Amino acid sequence: MGNDFEKSYMGQLRKLVGDQRIIVPGVRAVIFNKQGRVLLIHRTDSGRWGMPAGAVELGDSALDALKREVREETGLNVLSATPFAIYSHSRYSFSYPNGDKVQMFVLVFRVDQWEGELIRETDETVGAEFFPLDNLPDLHEVYVETLNDLKNYNGEFIVK
Q: Kindly report the CA angle at 57 between 55 and 139, in degrees rounded to 5?
């Protein structure tokens, strides 16, 4: 987390509150290719695989944030997306490797249309790959839960 983080809304907020737990508004993208494989990124901050995601910045809409985060982490451009769930319960709290504590308040989108060439390495990732749903790498439980929620999605917005 270099200079860009220090300039971001979260970076500015962290200067004021230190590492105490805060609620972080964020977005998460579930992106499938034509073969039904899900896109996962190998994150540099945690060393784990996950979905493209990130914090909403001041002045962003949730959709703006989704498009920015997907582009930054994968090189892909989101053309259309449907929100289907929000995760905000205190059980979605965790600490980053640097000690910063957060409670997620994440709006999850199914990306319906996208374009572009996948970039496998960025400032935030050391890998990006489409995986078959029956052969996923080790994922944090919240990503497994997200995939299960989408699989069982019946059109009624999911609130957790």
A: 10
